[in-house]
Specification:
alpha/beta, 6-stranded mixed beta sheet, 7 helices, 6 strands
């Protein structure tokens, strides 16, 4: 069943029906159209009763950017449903950045347009995800913030993959003597080039609080690191001219030092740790 982007006429039989006395309803698979010619498979968990308002959660499954599907996200989605939410779990494409983020943002806007039908009038909208899905949930929340739409009530991130510089002592302890690392492989598949690692929508842990984004006639421009006002750069790094150039060079040197430190840690070399400072909330 394909639904147009602005459709609010979601058939009642496409929502999962709650069995009498059951703690949770049966999930329902569906297909929505988030853009002309772009269909996305989703799985709906939960069903609102007449006059009821539920939290509406858009959920992204895990899989380290290389695998996974709707079945992989069933445990977390069912837990969210059990907590009282109406869950839209997304089968996002396992392709390099930025397509999964764009798809997630399209589903978020669809969920917002259909929130009254799905979860009740005035339903609050949330994002959720685990590991790679946590990365996408955080990135989509940044897009929603930068575009000032749609309004979000919060995000739920479970072991999110927010930073590719993951050569930490705890990770080495968990992987033991293994030479392969699915997280590193996942990042290699997700990031097409080193420049992608500078973009806050690809690496949300590196995002800064942005200035108000400018309106660009080219929608794809927000995915280029030089789209500074929409890419999480603020203050000196967002300026043009020599001052802004110097600030951006300093930021790139910082990213290079982080990458070098991660490589050294992966090779077992001692690295002096520095505090990254307080983490600023997206909202």
């Amino acid at each position: 069943m394909a639904l147009p982007p602005d459709s609010l006429s979601l058939p009642s039989d496409s929502l999962p029906q709650a069995a009498p006395g059951a703690a949770a309803s049966q999930p329902c698979d569906s297909t929505i159209e988030v853009a002309p010619g772009q269909d996305v498979a989703v799985r709906l968990y939960g069903r609102k009763k007449p006059g009821q308002r539920l939290p509406l959660v858009v959920h992204f499954h895990g899989g380290a950017f290389t695998s996974g599907g709707l079945d992989n996200g069933c445990t977390v989605a069912a837990l969210l449903e059990g907590a009282g939410a109406l869950v839209v779990s997304v089968a996002y494409p396992l392709t390099p950045f930025p397509q999964p983020v764009d798809t997630g943002y399209g589903v978020l806007k669809w969920a917002y347009r259909n929130r009254a039908r799905l979860a009740g009038q005035g339903a609050l909208l949330y994002l959720a995800g685990e590991e790679a899905g946590g990365n996408l949930a955080a990135a989509v929340s940044l897009m929603a913030r930068d575009q000032s739409h749609p309004p979000l009530a919060g995000q739920i991130l479970l072991s999110p993959m927010l930073d590719p510089c993951a050569g930490t002592a705890s990770l080495r302890e968990a992987t033991g003597d293994a030479t392969g690392c699915k997280w590193a492989e996942g990042w290699r598949n997700f990031l097409r080039s080193p420049r992608d690692a500078e973009h806050p929508y690809a690496v949300p842990a590196a995002a800064q609080r942005p200035c108000r984004p400018a309106a660009h006639p080219d929608p794809g421009r927000r995915h280029r690191p030089d789209a500074r006002r929409g890419a999480g750069l603020c203050g000196p790094a967002a300026r043009s001219g020599p001052a802004g150039h110097a600030a951006r060079l300093q930021q790139k040197r910082h990213l290079a030092r982080r990458a070098a430190a991660a490589a050294a840690r992966a090779g077992g070399m001692p690295v002096r740790r520095r505090s990254p400072g307080p983490v600023r909330s997206v909202f």
